[in-house]
Amino acid sequence: MSETLERAQQLQDALVEWRRHIHAHPELGFEEHETARLVADVLRERGLSVETGVGGTGVVARLGEGHPRIGVRAEMDALPIQEANDVPYRSQVPGVMHACGHDAHIAMALGAAELLAGCRDPLRGEVRFLFQPSEEVGDSEGRSGAIRMIEDGAVDRLDAILSLHVDSDALAGTVGIRSGYVTAAVDPFSATIIGSGCHSAFPHQGVNPITILAQVIHAVQGIVPLRVDPLRPAIVAIESVQAGDAAGVIPEEAHLTGNIRTFDEDVRQQLHGELRRALGLARLPGGDYRLTIESYSPAAYNDLAIAQMVTAAAREISGPDSVFEPEPRMYGEDFAHMASRVPGVLAFLGVRRGDRVRPLHSPIFDLDEVALPIGVAVLAESVARLSRVS
Description:
Elements: H1 3-9, H2 12-24, H3 33-45, E1 49-54, E2 58-64, E3 69-75, H4 102-117, E4 126-132, H5 145-151, E5 160-171, E6 175-176, E7 180-183, E8 185-194, E9 198-199, H6 209-221, H7 223-227, E10 234-243, E11 249-250, E12 253-262, H8 265-279, E13 288-293, E14 300-302, H9 304-318, E15 323-324, H10 335-339, E16 344-352, H11 372-387
Parallel strand pairs: 3-4, 3-5, 5-16, 6-15
Antiparallel strand pairs: 1-2, 2-4, 6-16, 7-14, 8-12, 8-13, 9-11, 10-12
Helix pairs in contact: 1-11, 2-4, 4-11, 6-8, 9-11
């Protein structure tokens, strides 16, 4: 067993206590006041310099100073989900739950801070811990916590940045690392098809947006298989449709929402154009459309040199047979905003207990807490190795 892992395992009780307290008291995006207070108190007790209110409710803590400057990022927000688990630490907030493992991310980042603060040989340079608000949703301007923290200077002058995300599919204690693209760019869209309403007994007197909507859906579903290189991953998903609310009435408008997911920027822009072409069908029978495409995050790209260093650290901590190369994920991660400005790595920690998978973003999500010290040790050892790189 590595010395780093041995020290991390001595924090097991504290890690579980932090994680369970946060899990029982979840807070939604940009509302993480009590979570931020707990984080700041723990870090101050460990002797770190702490700044609060960064990017809204975020916390930035610094250990050491100078070059190199290594960042460790963890998210603090929960999801609007009613927990179904019957456990002592189940959410005490109706309709809100840590269903994406952010409670574990916070605990592991706190553990890494304690481990690094207690090193016999002080690290070179600065370690900066970023506890980020609202990874899951944007604010009233559509900006997520990562963007708000960047705007407040949280990643300024960093040389590298790390983030560790739980993986509910992988066995507890395994570590997934890859270089290159790791999560997709995510662009939510909403569209309105504009017709002209009339009595359903006289359809010829109007333009039925529902009929147009059916044609648009068919066209949208044909974009990826017919217009995109099959060797370049892409998704255009329709997630909701709505039209009409009265009998005997053809409505004025029909609405749909969805998501575009890609890795390649050229494909991303192509899909934006293809979506507009599909909605252009509304104009053929005399209707029209409005389309809004937002940008939740770019694709997250893992730096090759840093990924190799984190892989070496993980193999030392958990053993070479416990480190795997995950496939790129089609979901989004707003860590991508930070990794687009600072060379970084988003790695994954397996947390599955036994054969039952408890999926992320589900009411039954839970994790095997035996993995927490391994995550702490991987973060701490990776930071230590990066700090030795001038």
